[in-house]
Design brief:
This protein has 197 residues and is of the alpha+beta class. The chain folds into 2 domains: 143 residues, Alpha-D-Glucose-1,6-Bisphosphate, Chain A, domain 4, CATH 3.30.530; 42 residues. It is 39% helix and 37% strand. A hairpin with a 5-residue loop joins strand 6 and strand 7. Helix 2 crosses helix 4 and helix 5 packs antiparallel against helix 6. The longest helix has 22 residues. It is globular, with a radius of gyration of 20 Å.
């Protein structure tokens, strides 16, 4: 499986680099992550729970950073065991480039192999799960960096933006007449909810 994506982060390159090397931020951003602990120089022991199609398992593994070129790029080499569910291993090359004074483009190419039950459920399900996990990671990562969700993919952010606008409109409308104002708020909330689907 190979996965290549780019995301725009709402912070300068140095700040993005520091966040990518902050285990507390990474733990908060990786879906299902239970722990990330130092395990040697530029290496970490990781425990997480993940679902891939019908297979849900707790994985324990190791992540090693290689080819480090701060604050521009590094390669993550990873391997993990999920007991009866199987195993996963591979690498991801992560590259940061400035996209203006206050934003950074993060591009990564990940290659992974799976075995055991994970390999039996089919590459389409595995690829889909990997993309979903990556999308959730970057959404959380953008929020941790203080700029809301990462700028791309823009499609998924539309519902969140509408919901945020509704919250702001609701707080601005407090203290004013109820009746029609309340109906307008409900209509906006309903629109935001519908737009997520």
């Amino acid at each position: 499986m190979e996965l290549t994506e780019s995301h725009t982060l709402p912070v300068p390159q140095q700040r993005a680099w520091e966040a990518l090397n902050d285990t507390a931020i990474l733990k908060a951003c990786i879906p299902g992550c239970e722990s990330i602990e130092a395990d040697g120089k530029n290496a970490y022991a990781v425990a997480l729970t993940a679902s891939v199609g019908p297979v849900k398992a707790r994985f324990k593994g190791r992540m090693q950073l290689a080819d480090i070129d701060a604050p521009n790029s590094y390669t993550i080499v990873f391997e993990g065991q999920g007991g009866a569910a199987g195993f996963g291993k591979g690498d991801a090359h992560v590259k940061l480039e400035p996209a203006g004074d206050e934003s950074t483009t993060l591009t990564y190419t990940a290659n992974a192999q799976v075995g055991g039950k994970l390999a039996q459920i089919g590459s389409r399900l595995v690829d889909g799960a990997a993309r979903k996990i990556a999308a959730e990671f970057f959404k959380r990562f953008g929020e941790q960096l203080g700029g809301g969700a990462a700028q791309e993919p823009a499609q998924e952010d539309a519902g969140a933006a509408n919901a945020e606008a509704d919250t702001q409109a609701a707080s601005e409308g407090e203290g004013e007449g109820e009746g029609a104002e309340d109906q307008q708020k409900r209509k906006r909330s309903w629109t935001a909810w519908i737009s997520k689907f």
